[in-house]
Batch of 4 targets.
Target 1
Amino acid sequence: MNDPHSTPAHFGLTGQRIIVTGGSRGLGEQIVRRLVAEGCQVATCARGQERLDQLAAQLPEHALFTRTLDVTAAPLLHEFVAEVAGHFGGLDGVVACAGGARGGMLDSATPQDWTTTWELNVGHTAQLIAAAAPHLRAAGGGSAVIVSSVSGWKPGPQAQYGAAKAAQIHLATSLARELGADGIRVNAVSPGSMLIPGKRWDRMRTEEPEEFAAFTREFPAGQLVDPAEVAAVVAFLLSGAASGISGANIPVDRAQNAPTPDGY
């Protein structure tokens, strides 16, 4: 099998100006690394400056523009987009990668858990694209990629997360129609369960090997998704090679069945 981490840059993205939210760790970090390897000018934001500084130090000098930011603070997110566009002299694409969930099951999740989960996923995505749209129009068009999840259409706990991810998929299809006349493409990518160092499935692999082995049976090939595989699809959708794709939801899940070991 090909190593996704060794895939050469080949999507013709050199010089493209791209914003990635939530790019300091996990999938977001892999997307940033892939786009830098493609020759893009990349900007990212996250809540922790230390992780941003560590990532920037591992990349070529001046390859990454960073800011500490809570993406649910819409005015600050708009300011960040405007700052990046000014710094780069425009924008060619955005990737809404920041996301997550708050709260537990229905009987324990609070109204604030639902609101926070919605704002972190759907709210921030809508505001990112709204802030970027004028700059993309000025550049003659561009691409927005929304990182959703297989949980957006394959039921599993928690409901507030799945509902928000389903809304992101609808957002991609709706905004693709709304912004298409301006040459702006909008697509969603839905990763399956990814094996990320230190995260849930990686911890399960070492702490609960029997449960992890059972979970791998949700994948026909017995292997979870590598974040670098998702990053490659994001790069493709940002590129001219995907010029005919808009309003789509692209699963990158290795044909995964249930999205969690507690799937229904």
Note: The longest strand covers residues 184-191.
Target 2
Amino acid sequence: MAFQPKQKEFKSKNGNQYVFQTIPNSKYLEMMDDSVAANGNPLVSKLYAAVLEHIVVQPSGLTVDDFDSLKELQEVCEAALTFQSGE
């Protein structure tokens, strides 16, 4: 079965609109591997940057510094990761 990306619209608690798009499992696993320190702890700065680059497709080109609040950054990235994992 070939990979078919899926999309989902997401509205943050602040009312901002985003569109998520799934990535192939191999890219997701690579992204997760790249976001873990040698001791096994997550590197959130790398993970969130990768989520914004690869899973959040609208608005395009977002970076972690484009968010006014850390709370919204966390909300969007965690929702995108949940969507990617199919939960």
Note: The chain has one domain: 7-84.
Target 3
Amino acid sequence: MTYKVVVVDDHLLIAKAISSIIEGFSGFEVLYEAENGKVLIDKFKVRVNIPDIVLMDISMPIMNGFETTQWLTDNYPDILVMALSVQDDDESLIKMIKSGAKGYLHKNVHPAELEIALKTLIDKGMYFPAWATSKIFMSISKKDDKKTTNEIKLSDRELAFLNFVCTELTYKEIADRMCCSPRTVEGYRDALFEKLGVKTRVGLAMYVVKNNIS
């Protein structure tokens, strides 16, 4: 199967270079480049222009990466957004995750890691390198008012689901292990998002680590 990718970046030469690299990866093809979120949204008016993955720059005119990622999360939640930016500060990383990004890479990433990231994004639903995971964990740890397991009631099934969150299993595979449907697992996930005040699987995983859930 070939997965379709769109590169959103306001620097044409960079966008073309990234596209050229991705075209060399087995199983991926680049549909087109877009210079900002507004152009991407306009492209989406034609169904064949809707990709599986969007590689998203952050700093862009008219409609930046944060706004565009949030729009995609609201309107096309199945599209996997991976930030590809020169910005690697805590604020940008956390803001992109809160907007719905499932991955984050720095633009100086080696092509080999980019290929691994894309394949992992498809297989596992997210990809964050070690430096990004560390920043996410530190951000969560700094929040003194973050809820703990002592302050909120979690069901046995929700706790069981949380134990699988830190593995590399997909949600479908977790459903198989828990002997329930993928829709039921999605229900556990959404309920925990609400209870724990997080928005992504990474947030759930960091919550598990912080609170020593086992």
Note: The first helix runs from residue 12 to 23.
Target 4
Amino acid sequence: MPQFANYPSLKGKTVFITGGAGGIGAETVAAFAAQGARVGFIDMDRPGSEALTTRLEGDVTFEICDLRDIDAVKAAFAALAERLGPATVLVNNAARDDRHDWKDVTAEYWDDRIATNLRHMFFAIQAVAPGMIEAGGGSIINLGSNSWWEAGGGFPVYATAKAAVHGLTRTMARDLGDHRIRVNTVVPGWIMTDRQKELWATPEALEKHRNRQCLPDLVEPVYVARMVVFLASDDAAMCSANNYMVEAGSI
């Protein structure tokens, strides 16, 4: 069993996470709760959100919100801040890697996928950053993907959105850096969430993927969460505008 670090700097901190009810998001909520942080997350899945908060110990709460609705996003963060206080950590996690053929993409589908995978990240930062400025600093962690680094096919709008996350991270790291707000991208590889296992993790696909990794083990969501926790902590105080890969050396 792996033994994970405890970060005293996270105890009592307020952390907001998007897409926290399942997958990488749920592992991230659990990881911060275990650090003694005050955690508020946003998700569309009410049963999943309720089940997670029931399972976890600590100060964990949620708001139900469709992240494609920017007014609803702002209202959800305001409600969380009322209960937990302003966040000094924001984790922009929410996304959906739905497969789609480039020949079938319409303008409406393009706009919906960009809204699902990218647009809300900027507006989450816009909503939360003023509180971080007032607090004297903070940490923003955006979740990217190594799918476009690997030139993966089958989801061109998703890959475009995830590539754009890196531009968002670097420009916001510059704009917010004077306020001691750090902005970084965590870049997962193929992470073995329940969704991936149910939809795409066939024995053949897994064997092919193992052959591309330097390490022989498949990557579980907890390892992405641990990188996020590190970047939120004071241990990462001089880390900003960079990519942090969690993909077992995938090539």
Note: Residues 9-246 form a domain with the Rossmann fold fold (CATH 3.40.50.720).
